[in-house]
Amino acid sequence: MRKGLLSLGKTRSKSKLAEANGDDVVELNVGGHVFMTTRGTLLSAEGSRLEQLFADHESESRVGRDAEGRFFFDRDGSQFAVILNYLRDGDADFPEAGSPEWTTLRREVDYFGIFKLADRMDEIDAELAADAEEAEALSENVDVPPPSDDMSPEERAEREELEHIAKMRAELDARAREIERRLADTSSGDLDERAKDLLTMELHKVQLEAEHNSIREREHGRELRYNLLIVGTSGSGKSSSLNTLLDSQACLVSGAQAQGTRGTVLRDAKLDQDHFVSYIDTQGLGADTSVSDTELLSQIMVATESVLQMGIINNILISFDVNSRTTPAMMANQLTLMELFSELRRSCFLVFTKWNTNAVQVEWNKPLRDWVRRWKRAETEEEIDEEPPSYEEMYRSFCQYVIGALANEMDGGAFSKMGTFLAFFEARILFMYNLDGIQQEDREEGALDPHISVLYRFYREKALDTLDRGSTRIVTEDLTFLREDEATMRSVAAQLIRNRDEKIYQLELVGREARKRREMKRIFNNMADDHTNRIRDHDFRARSAYTNKIALLAGFVRTVATAGCTVM
After folding, report:
1. Residues of the chain with pLDDT under 50
2. CB crowding 302-313: b at 16 or more within 10 Å, else e
3. What's the pLDDT score for residue 269?
4. What CATH class has 16-120?
5. Which of 45, 217, 262, 451 is most exposed, with minimal Cβ within 10 Å?
6. Where are the domains of the chain?
């Protein structure tokens, strides 16, 4: 028998009054809280005090009334809405288990005799207790040194940090499970989509915080070398580039017909014995269609919590596949990323990928092609006594190819867009020598061709050195637009897309007009010379000289978005 349920006589079947008037509106005053519901709702919990009291007129007469004629219960009504929602829908948005509100709700549930609701609360209490036991067991697994009187200040600080990590792990695991339970409880469709989305976003936030805490635990004792964020179009080699930097298969690389990275993940990996890297591998923008403001908003919202969890961003990598045809949609999406990160440009690096394919070597990468032809038959790495081509050699070769292929009347628009894109990054360029699946297998088996092994190692070390030299320090909490609400973010995304489309239109006009096309070619040539020299000198400063010249030529307007992002 349920505690708090008073017997009101034998349980009876619903009377004719109940059957006939189930839709009657009933007003209740529960401890000063006024509620309106139907008689049918009150009768829905079989065997409850409410069912017995409102089954017929005789029973109703036992319930007192207030001055307004409402049925009065001298009880705590602060949680009665939860009981009513449960009776209406078979589920409810419960207060946090173990909280004072939870205790109040349980007391009132017992009083009114809502048996099924009491059983559900019992289940949640049992799950919470099990979670607490599991969290305690997990925290005991963290290698926290025992306290000692002769500990140095450094040892005491280390012990306190490990204790904090263990405590955070337990708390975050419990929070995540509580949210997962609430989502499971509402899976029957009783919670509207907006509320489900908010719960899902909260779960994502907690999971990211837990992952960040786990990174601190796994990498304890190693120094963080840098935090990386990599973005780009789908299939442009983002995950492969991260694998190259990390010298491991840390990121899953999709095949040509498979989906690429889905969602946004915060991860870490050991770089060497003393250092680790924290990174975010993002879902790619579409490669075949220009991203819309809705799609861009989705990308921003998914990535926001990941970026905030990093705390510091050192480098933003924007991947660019030079082996694929430069379609209008592809350039539009690259320009979208340029707009999105315009205020962070000093941290942005352009990552050239797939520049080592045979097709690219034949088409424009003569420095690499000549080097490969000289050394591809080498039987050992020791035979190879010549460094691979430098960044500046290949950048100059790529720029010459762009001028020759696109600086004409038919492709003038594409040429202007490419010039704008390269001007944004200046000397902040990485040539990432990524291995394909077969080459990776050969490397793991020690069977990789010597010349490919030399190229992989050389360009990986060059990329790491470039990132070190060009590293910045951006505190993510200072990026106010990341903390804006969805409505503001939607406005920002829409404005970014409008600016991008206007810019594309103006660049197309530059390509159509002979005089402007000639001026664009002159700017591009000067820019290629200047950037080549700056790459050689490791000059990664953001000067904006050629960006401003192209903007002046095309007539761009500099505006400030709602959330504080400046776009040009």
Report:
1. 1-18, 20, 138-140, 142, 188, 255-262, 288, 558-568
2. bbbbbbbbbeeb
3. 64
4. alpha beta
5. 262
6. 16-120, 222-567
